[in-house]
Specification:
Aspartate Aminotransferase, domain 1, four-stranded antiparallel β-sheet, alpha/beta, Aspartate Aminotransferase, domain 2, seven-stranded mixed β-sheet
Length: about 425
């Protein structure tokens, strides 16, 4: 008689998991105050005392700077806008090349195209998914201007090595911290190690304002340029007295007063949320480390935000494929409230390696002439072999470390994993 649910046995769990929602009465009260004030935004796209936004924007940016111990925080309407503004502030332009991640949300790689620069993909190392230093070195040439480092899944990249290479070649380093707010590498907050750090306030991130983002830097010049790019630079520079016109194009990357009010309250919860995720992740690692066909992430001199918790499945030891294993685990569980149509939040791989999406395969972004792409830079399959192996064969992720999951919820997930591991022969 079969034990596993996929073969007809009883499931470990037959009720939905609670959805992620850390909005409470504090945020509601602050939004009401903003609504009652009638000031939902105070930005002016001109050199004026309101060029930098309203009271809540100022308060939110000040709170962010204090938390991360930086000189400047520039709120924006998304992490996407933040990366674009950051590259623009660094002077990235036509003919330049930017080293980017092959395994991330697409904007981490496509952002250089907004400034007519060319993305060049780097592979990741297979233990913590940090940028592979050898891959960085191989791709650097006289046209390389910057590196966009992604702290993917919430695990900091090897920033000491990356900064050493960047300093040697005089490159800007932009840290995409969308999935890793509040994490540290050698006791330094990610986002404060490179020239600019960028965070996401999207609705499924650790803290959120619906949509939104924040750029941080200790560099006065870069901060000024990001503020200009955020708010119609070309209309501001003359009266402001700025004579540097490079990349001073007009965008509206502005956050609203309502979002800033929510963000102030959300930031207060970050430490608690991180502690929950780290404690739950430890339970999963302890339960799965005993199986020789499963690899967990081993942290060294860094903390982890566990946007997703990741594991690797070793098919050659288990005797079955990762996909077959994960399908069996998912059969033991239920979906999340409000996201039932998405199924159990366990993923086989993450996103397709970015250089394999149509834009890079066809080298078409702005028009059919392939503007900003270079013939000598290839995006063919095999460009980043570690990422491809992770994606198609080994890596799996889950979204079961967050609040408001209880210990009982976590134990159900652990039970599902253990049940399949202990009865893996049923799948052979």
């Amino acid at each position: 008689m079969s034990v596993l649910a996929i073969n007809g046995g009883d499931k470990v769990r037959d009720k939905l998991f609670p959805r992620y929602n850390n909005i409470d009465q504090n945020e509601i009260n602050e939004v009401i105050k903003v609504m009652q004030s009638g000031v939902l935004s105070k930005y002016l796209g001109a050199w004026h005392e309101d060029f930098y936004g309203g009271d809540k924007i100022q308060e939110f940016e000040k709170a962010w700077s204090e938390y991360f111990e930086v000189k400047h925080s520039i709120s924006v309407n998304s992490n996407t806008s933040g990366i674009i503004a950051a590259l623009g502030a660094c002077g990235v332009g036509l003919g330049d090349e930017v080293l980017v991640s092959s395994y991330s949300m697409s904007i981490s790689a496509s952002a250089p195209l907004f400034w007519n620069a060319t993305p060049v993909f780097c592979d990741l190392e297979p233990e913590t998914y940090s940028f592979c230093i050898d891959s960085i070195k191989k791709n650097i040439n006289e046209n390389t201007k910057a590196i966009v480092v992604v702290h993917i899944f919430g695990c900091p990249s090897n920033m000491n090595e990356i900064m050493e290479v960047a300093k040697e070649h005089n490159l800007y380093v932009i840290e995409d911290c969308a999935q890793a707010p509040g994490t540290k590498y050698h006791d330094k907050f990610v986002g404060t190690i490179g020239d600019i750090g960028i965070f996401s306030l999207n609705y499924h991130k650790h803290i959120h304002t619906g949509e939104g983002g924040v750029c941080i830097t200790n560099n006065d010049t870069l901060a000024n340029k990001m503020q200009l790019i955020r708010n119609h630079a070309e209309s501001v520079v003359e009266n402001k007295g700025d004579i540097q016109l490079e990349n001073m194009l007009g965008f509206n990357f502005r956050l609203t007063e309502i979002q800033a009010a929510i963000g102030i309250e959300q930031l207060k919860k970050l430490d608690t949320e991180l502690k929950i995720r780290q404690e739950y992740a430890k339970l999963y690692n302890e339960a799965l480390d005993k199986y020789n066909f499963i690899k967990t992430v081993k942290l060294d001199n860094r903390t982890h935000a566990y946007y997703f918790q990741t594991f690797q499945f070793l098919e050659e030891i288990a005797g079955i494929s990762r996909d077959k294993f994960i399908t069996a685990v998912k059969a033991e569980l239920e979906a999340v409230e409000g996201r039932e149509n998405e199924g159990v939040p366990i993923g086989q791989g993450y996103v397709k390696p970015l250089y394999l999406i149509p834009m890079f395969q066809n080298k078409i972004a702005y028009n059919s002439k392939g503007f900003a792409f270079k013939d000598e830079i290839s995006y063919e399959k095999g460009t980043c072999p570690v990422v491809e192996d992770m994606h198609y064969n080994k890596l799996w992720t889950h979204d079961f470390t967050r609040s408001p999951l209880s210990l009982d919820d976590v134990n159900d997930v652990i039970s599902a994993y253990v049940k399949v591991c202990e009865n893996i022969d049923e799948l052979k």
